[in-house]
Each structure stands twice: as structure tokens, then as C-alpha cells.
Amino acid sequence: MRQSKILIPTQKQDPAGAEALSHKLLLRAGFIRQISAGNYAYLPLAYRVLARIKTIIREELDRTDATEMLLPTMIPAEFWKKSGRYAAYGPELFRLKNRHDTDFILGPTHEETVTELIKATVSSYKKLPLNIYQIQSKYRDEDRPRYGLLRSREFMMLDSYSFAASDEDLDQTYRAMRQAFTKIFDRIGLDYQSIIGDSGSMGGSDSMEFSAPAAVGEDTIVYSDNSEYAANLEMATNLVMNKKSHAEPQSLQVVATANCKNVADVAALLEVSTDQIIKSLLYDVDGQLVLVLLRGSQTVNENKLQNFFNADRLQLADAIETKGQVLQDGTLALPSKMVVVADEYVHGMVNGVIGAPAMAVIVNSQGAKLPNVDLTTDPIGKHYTGFNPSRDFPDLQYGDFRMVNEGDISPDGSGVLHFTKGIEVGHIFKLGTRYSTSLDATILDENGRQQPVIMGCYGIGVSRLLSAVTEQQADENGLIWPRSIAPFDVHVLPINIKDEKQRTLAEQITTNLENDGLEVLLDDRKERAGVKFADADLIGIPIRITLGKKVAEDIVEVKIRKTGETIETRVDDLKNTIDILAKNI
What we know:
This protein is α+β, with helices and mostly antiparallel strands. It has 3 domains: 3-236 and 418-471, 2-Layer Sandwich (BirA Bifunctional Protein, domain 2); 253-399, YbaK protein (Alpha-Beta Complex); 490-582, Anticodon-binding domain (Rossmann fold). α1 packs across α14 (462-473) and α2 runs antiparallel to α6. The two termini are 22 Å apart. Belongs to the class-II aminoacyl-tRNA synthetase family. ProS type 1 subfamily. Residues 38-482 form the Aminoacyl-transfer RNA synthetases class-II family profile domain. Homodimer. It is an enzyme of class 6 (ligase).
């Protein structure tokens, strides 16, 4: 293919406003162009890369007996209202109406749509298991699109959905898809990690992410330095090591802390470690007030908390509203249905310090009566010392509600935890009956009874793979594409297109290589050699063939873009040279 006939608007300078390396290079190399904030056109080179990625995906998914189809991008809002996600998804959901005032959305994902489809077409376990997939544009109204294709409002995605009559069949498909995803990312040439993931708004149980380590990544990968443990920060945990204290438990005593604004202030006033302070935060969890207790040095992991309650919505309760729940005209007025949970690290505390308002909430929720605890007085500006959870509230509910820290012991007890940044490129979920139950998608089982169909979901961010690969493999001169997804296999550059010998030989080489099954880009532009070399490095095709002064001797130069290695070869031996070099790229 002739370069003069392709739209490749390269740029010498970094585009204004582009922060990430991949954003800068994909724009500079003429692969993408912004149409509006968060919306990009995939120009011919990018489109060719996407086509190769899609081919790899199709080949590997077809091997699992998954079949491709296509769902509409405009979805009746009724489906999402049934599942509860229409309200829960938030402002990122593109909402619209047709001329008849009917609500629709632009699909950010298609669980509800495909569930409605299966509900209408599959009624018996005999037609299961089934796995269908599509590669399609998705839409999310990002508040602040950034980093080019990494966080955009319109993006290309593979989403696959499996349906089964038993957990065993779901497990089998889940394992097959995990293996297929591994093969896909291996073939693409991506450096990635398989990590424990958070299901988030998708719901479901087991979840695994595929994350590509990169400095610009918005996810944090937590991994052990001595085992295979790896997880998204939102799901990462550590080994609970509540060291046994030999201190004598003290009685509860109230102390004034009116001038203390935070945990550090209280610890300084009472001359104790922040680990001895119990931090308390009040959340609204699907309309239920929940008080969370954890050590003062720790941070609440809201994803774990939301998953613990299997909630659609979670947010910190408003401070003024919270005070109103605790105090009315100086006297306590606590709702009886407030829930209290504590992190596992609170369980082993001896002689801890806790705020008096939190103590009042716990006493009220547990129906306890403790010496020296008076619920009729104003608790604001006071703390209790001598708080021993196992003694004072033996029925307190515990769980893992904390963020892990670097240096914590890995949960498998092998090694310590480290953090690195990563780009989420794939995610697989066991959805179970989350959607089939809410949308009433049932089948007849082998005993003739109705049961909800059991679902799995599997996604790959197709367009963001362009950015992920670029972040990992580019250099100061431009893009470096793995051969499996490069827009072309070979780039042919005659130094002087006006030279008849160079021009004729370049066209002959191009034709011969194309006849051998390679995809070739011929730079037939009337540009200076420096411009051609710079553009070739920027575009990043794996192999470059340069025709210069030695064409009279039928000798050309072959350059490997990834390593910069060059070798001269005779034209009649060119194909063999390329075959040998291609094994290492």
C-alpha cells in the first residue's frame, strides 16, 4: 500500500493538552484524532491495529465455542430500571428520549440487554451452556476524559456473556475464558498481570482483572514479592496480625477532647499511638446508616464495605445530618436500626480510645449497658479510654474494611506487599443470578422446575489496548508495534523516489513481499530522507527496508524498529533475512 494514499497526519511536536505518553504518540503518529472531548476518530493506521486485535480475539474466543453477534448500542432504559442500575449507575450514564418520550440509554455495557434476549429465546437447560460475544462501541459520560483512549467517553470493547444451568458449567466457562484471555494478551505482546478484581457495579462473585503495568495506569496493583498473590488495591488484603497485648484491661473513662480535630490530635493529647485510637465513619449504604470502626492509622476501603453489604450505593453520610441523628436539643436521639461493623484489626485492641458519639451509637445498636457510659449527655468533644471491644461488645460484627499498605504481610503469609500502577485491559466476572433474577430470566431445569439462568461476563478494552501497548513499548522516537498487531509488517523506504532504480526496486520488493503474505507500506512520498526516517520511527512498523545508494548493487538495508539493529542484505535474499529477523520481534 502506498503511503501517499493513506491519511497519516504526523506531527513533529507534542499536541497541547496531551499528558500520557500514549496520548501524545498516537496523536503525533497520525493514528487518532480528537473529534470532541473524550471522542476520537481511529484513522487508517489505528483501524488496522484494531482489526488485527479483533482477529486475535475472535480466533481465541471461537476456540472456546463462544459465538459472535451484535446488540444495539441504544438500549431501552426499562431494562436498566428493572435491574436497578438506571438509578445506581450515576451521571456517567448517557440518557436520552425518543420522539415518543420513551427513555433510552447509550450502552456502557450490555448485561441487561443480553439477559432480556436470552429470556426471550432460551427456555430450557438443554440449550445451555451458551457463550455469546460482541465487539462494539460503548459509552460513558466521563466527567473528565483524559489520557486519550485510556479514559474516553466512547470506546471499543469486547463483551462476552455466558449462560449456564449449573455452577459447574459456569466454572468451566470461566476457566476457559480466563485461558482465552491469557492467550489473547500473550499473542498481542502485552506485559500483564492477572489479579483479584472488584466486580463494582457489575455485581456477582468471583472476579479477575488483567492489568498492564504502566506509569500512567489509574489502577493500583498490589502484589507479593515472594508469591503469586496479586490484587487490585480495591480488593487487596493482608495477613491479620493482631499481636496479643499483655496490658491489663482498664475500665471505661470519659475524657474531654474538645480541641482535637483529628486522630493525630487525640493521640498527641492522650500520649498514645494512633493505632490505639478507633476511627469511626458513618456511611449511607442503600439508605441504611452504617458506622464503620477501624484503627486510627488505617483507611476505609469503600469497595470492600460496599461488597460486604452487597450494596448498589454507598456514600459518607453528611456531617450535619449525622449530628442530627445523634443529637437533638442536646440529648441523644439515635435510630435503633443503625448498623455497626468493625475491621478485623479492631478485634484484638486493648485499652483503645473511641469517640463518645461513636460509643453512643454502638451502645444503642447493641442494646448494651456499660458502666461509666451515659447516653443522656452531650457526647460531642469527648472520648472514652479503656475501650476493649472483645469485653465491651462481644457480639460486634467484624470484617476486612481496610486499605492495605505497602510493606504489609501478604495474605498468604509469603512475602510483603508492593504497589505498582496498571491499566485495566480485561476483566472476567461470575455474575451468578444477579441479572437473571431481577429481569426474571428463567429456564426449566432437568427436573422441570423454573430456575434463574446463571451468568458470567467477560470484557476486554479493545481500544485502550492501543494505549497500553504504547505505554509499555514506545521509545523517545515513537511507537514500537509488536508484529502481531502492527498496522503493517514491513515499511519500504526509497530514499529518493525520483531515482528510477530506487523507485522500480521498491515497487518490486513491495509486490514480492505482498505476494508472500506480508502487509507492506511503501513510502512513495516526495519527502526528504530525514522526514521519511522520522515518520517511520514515529509510526513504529516492526521492519524497515531502506533503499539508498547501494541499490545499484541490489543491496538494501533492513532495520528492526524495536532494537535499532540494522543489516545489509542482497535483494534476492531479502525474504529469508526478514523471516530470520521476524522470529525475534
